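Consider this one:
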Amino acid sequence: MVKKGKKEKKVKGAEKTAAKMEKKVSKRSKREEEDLEALIAEFQNLDAKKTQVVETTCPPPSPRLSASLSAHPEKDELILFGGEFFNGKKTYLYNDLFFYNIKKNSWVKSEIPNPPPPRCSHQAVVVPQGGGQLWVFGGEFASPNGEQFYHYKDLWVLHLATHTWENIKAPGGPPGRSGHRMVLSKKQLLVFGGFHESTRDFIYYSDIYSFSLDTFSWSRLTPSGSGPSPRSACKMTSTPDGMGVIIYGGYSKVRVKKDVEKGTIHSDMFLLKREGKDGQEKWSWSRLNPSGNKPPPRSGFSVAVGPAGRALLFGGVCDEEEEETLEGDFYNDLYLYDTVKNRWFPGLLRGNKSEKKKRRRGKKGGAEGQGEGAPQGPTEVVKEIVTEDGTVMTIKEVIPGAQEEEEEEEEEEEEDDDASAPLVEPCARSSAMATARQGKLFLYGGMFEVGDRQFTLNDFYSLDLNKMDQWEVLVEMDPKTQEWLEESESEEDEEEEEEAKGAEGVEEGEGEDSEEESEDEEDEVEHPTVQEGETVTDYQSRTEQHWIGLARANMGPDAKEKKVAKVALAMAKVFFEDQ
């Protein structure tokens, strides 16, 4: 009893500390988020002018990461929404919506009135009811210079049958966050973890919320037992019976001293189990100790659910952190988790069996005491790709060694003396989008780094999970799309100015068209001109009522006066700096 009492006190103490940190972060980030609300309001104002659904056949979506890729619950289609792109100087956030027809191998861009504002690191879940729905919660918006963040706490549903977006306003939901996870469990959406970050502070969450698809109401769950520590970007999948969810891995960081942060890659596993009837459920956490071969520690991996409820984990990155540097090893391997057997195993392709056998034979000859059936360690493969500007990308791929099951299968087959053809496979990456449909795993985009340069991808692959023979390339990586603009000290001021022009290029495909739209917008709403020698403070004071009127029109009649005034000041500042 004494031990239990100490444990309960420790848990309550941790909850108090987390609550204090959340309040501190919320207070410091409030001003930053209000500055960004002006930009977000402008985007929504532009989207509100669209009154009709416009669908256009188009090329594959532009390079991006941290978007959502979901399988349509009724059709042979995939749905891609949002995401981000960084070119070395500027961060772009998207709220564009694409449908991929699996049979036709074609893309359609769907412009639907009143969509959610641009975001990345959100979560999207499809449900079959009502002709099919796509539910989207949370995520983040960033200033063009990538230094300020706005964390959403909104909930949206895309009605797939009618192609309409709806903003669901239900009280009691999770605080704003990104990097969280959301899954469907029976008739509930379960949201776990994530983080909230401002310029100076951050907080990681370990709370879990439930949203009822019957009553459209939020509730915070209070499971018994010891659950996962606060984290973001974990693997969260429902159990096949719908009576629980499984959490694996994730990432979190702490501040060890002023201006020094230390990241932690988690590799533990937990089961959140539901017991009791609907409306009277009791939830409990328990720790899982799976058998088999767990993935090496990593973050930024992609997750999907395949046949028989098997969870699929692809790629990711393992960062090696020093006080001044951050280097990462990127992966392109595939692991599967059997929820019934509580077992991990690597997803090895069968197309290179003979090659693996030859490597084992070579190993036998070169090392004493190791037989032909000895497990083989990971193998590194190095590729070089030359981009349009002449940069050479050296991509290191780590292919996991053969495991016992695969070796036994291979020993039954005849040895092939002919060298097998090299397999085509996705390069190592993190933050890619993945989903499964028709027994196939689909993988889109993501990013990897070479030195200080980030490469954002828009290649597209599929893998037959029943055959497990080879990846099929649906869209090849185009080096011409690898834009990277080096930043210099003299450009920092220009980047700050870019923040005030964040509406440019937010939606997919914007370029000259977006500039024309901006000009049209300026023609429609005539703003007070800046007088010669006038300071930004003078301009804000002189034109206050004009900008308050615009802010009120964007934010609606229910917005508080104080908040409207702050947004109005931010809008005036954006316009002043743009002149």
In short: The first helix runs from residue 2 to 48. The chain has a mean pLDDT of 80. DSSP finds eight helices and 32 strands in the chain.
